[in-house]
């Protein structure tokens, strides 16, 4: 599995199709529709890939087939981790964590800046934490959660997602995901 990176959104006038090809985009859309489930449509996934991102990273399997993507927006030095999806057949193998490490390395995390995302999915929080540990050195990682009621208007996945950490699952169970509630997560690396 390797990551390739291409710029889109503000970073270039080219569309992802022009940069990485129609076939790859079509496959990523298919992965998104299947992995999110819950009525996610082609157009919505395509919009996630294209709009509002400065960069998108694509993960491939060892045969060169795309198995996931994740977006990045750089906002005044802070990193906004936008839409991410991994093929159902490759979930739980650290693909999201690798794409997140890659995004943080590309964006660069300066002192005092934060990593942000919005999610209903505790796996996302755990994956970002895991990725950040590789950059933390002797600093500690702080996480704060701002709850946004109805942010997505619905549950983005077919069913509520859970991790192995029951305490974290309990925090996410506070969200009314069917109404679309989500957390905006803020991660910082701070000196001990
Ligand atoms: C969320 C998603 C992108 C994670 O991708 P992934 O490649 O499976 O994630 P990783 O394997 O890197 O695991 C990330 C964390 O999730 C948790 N996790 C992953 N698979 C899990 C499983 N089967 N059971 C419990 N926890 C699991 C782990 O805590 C892991 O952290 P760790 O590295 O500390 O173990 C993927 O599940 C997905 O595409 N979901 C549907 C779309 C979605 O919800 N996208 C996010 C929108 S904000």
Topology:
Blueprint: E1 2-7, H1 16-20, H2 22-36, H3 42-50, E2 55-60, E3 66-75, E4 78-86, H4 95-107, E5 115-119, H5 122-136, E6 140-148, H6 166-173, E7 182-190
Helix pairs in contact: 2-3, 4-5
Account of the 3D structure:
The chain has 192 residues and is of the alpha+beta class. The protein has one domain: Gcn5-related N-acetyltransferase (GNAT) (Aminopeptidase, 3-Layer(aba) Sandwich). It is 34% helix and 28% strand. It has six helices and seven strands; from the N terminus they run βαααβββαβαβαβ. It has helices at residues 16-20, 22-36, 42-50, 95-107, 122-136, 166-173, and strands at residues 2-7, 55-60, 66-75, 78-86, 115-119, 140-148, 182-190. A seven-stranded mixed beta sheet has the order 1-2-3-4-5-7-6, sandwiched between helices. A hairpin with a 2-residue loop joins strand 3 (66-75) and strand 4 (78-86). The longest helix is centred in the first third of the chain and has 15 residues, at 22-36. The radius of gyration is 16 Å and the shape is globular. The mean pLDDT is 89. The protein binds coenzyme A. Coenzyme A binds next to helix 2, strand 4, helix 4 and helix 5. Coenzyme A binds at residues 35-36, 84-86, 91-97, 119, 121, 123-124, 126-127, 130, 156-157, 161, 163-164.
